[in-house]
């Protein structure tokens, strides 16, 4: 069983007021940071919520075998300069089995009262539920049930959307 951390983040308006060159430098530094973490033990997947949520701009899903790894990611994130322009909107912790693939994600922090749709891969935690699959399958469910719908991205692709 793996520990899971789903972190949702929003870009602060002050970031958009920075010179374009400085914005680009901060994005590149953060993209490299995320890419380094993707190579470590466990997993770190990056998802865009741009245009899909009014609460957050992106979601990070980390899986680790021990609590110290979850803490280390957050500690090191706070040492990046871009974190001065990001707000942590929510953090959902749980534990479960499996690693995400390359498709879209629907996150239901408090589970679902209806069954999971056909065509979606289920990641069941002790409290939360994450579904991975095609947009066509996840979108209607996220609308009805109020979950977060997110598009899988590389770190650089994500930051280019901000």
From TrEMBL:
Gene3D superfamilies linked to this entry: Apc35880, domain 1 (3.30.70.1030)
One MF term in the entry's GO annotations: heme binding
Keyword set, alphabetical order: Heme, Iron, Metal-binding
Superkingdom per UniProt: Bacteria
Protein name as annotated: Chlorite dismutase
């Amino acid at each position: 069983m793996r520990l899971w951390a789903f972190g949702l983040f929003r870009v602060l308006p002050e970031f958009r007021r920075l010179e374009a060159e400085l914005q680009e430098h901060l994005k590149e530094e953060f993209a490299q940071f995320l890419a380094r973490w993707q190579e470590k033990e466990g997993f770190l997947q990056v998802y865009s919520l741009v245009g899909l949520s009014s609460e957050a701009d992106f979601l990070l899903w980390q899986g680790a075998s021990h609590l110290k790894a979850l803490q280390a990611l957050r500690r090191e994130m706070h040492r990046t300069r871009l974190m001065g322009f990001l707000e942590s909107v929510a953090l959902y912790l749980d534990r479960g089995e499996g690693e995400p693939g390359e498709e879209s994600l629907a996150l239901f922090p408090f589970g679902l009262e209806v069954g999971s749709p056909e065509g979606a891969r289920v990641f069941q935690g002790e409290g939360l539920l994450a579904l991975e699959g095609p947009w066509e399958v996840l979108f209607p469910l996220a609308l009805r049930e109020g979950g977060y719908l997110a598009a899988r991205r590389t770190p650089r692709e994500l930051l280019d959307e901000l």
